Amino acid sequence: MRVAIPTRGERISPVFDSAASSFGRLRGGEGVFQGRCPLPADSLAGRVTRLRELGVTALICGGISRILRQMIEADGIHVYPWTAGPVDEILEAYRQGRLPKRDG
Prior knowledge:
This protein has helices at 44-53, 66-74, 87-95; strands at 2-8, 11-12, 23-27, 58-60, 78-80. The chain is of the alpha/beta class. A hairpin with a 2-residue loop joins strand 1 (2-8) and strand 2.
C-alpha cells in the first residue's frame, strides 16, 4: 500500500490541483511519513501519470477538481478529498481506518 499526501509544511495542502510538489508516503500500513517527490505542474494528466509511476493506491488531499478526481479514480486510485490537518494525524487516522471517503 502506498499513500500520497500533498503537503504544505506539516499540513495537508489545501488544493491538490495546484499543490506543492512534495508528498508523504505510507508503506505497508506503517504510520511513517517518508520521502518527497516532485509533481508535474503543467498538466493534470501528468499528475495522474506521476501517481501511477509511484505505485500510489490512495490519495489523501484537500480540495480537488472534479475532473482530476475522476481521472485519478479511473486509474484505480482511491481518493480521500476535503481532508485537512496535520499530516501525521491524518496518516494515523487513515492507518486506523477512521478516514472517511467523501463524495463531491
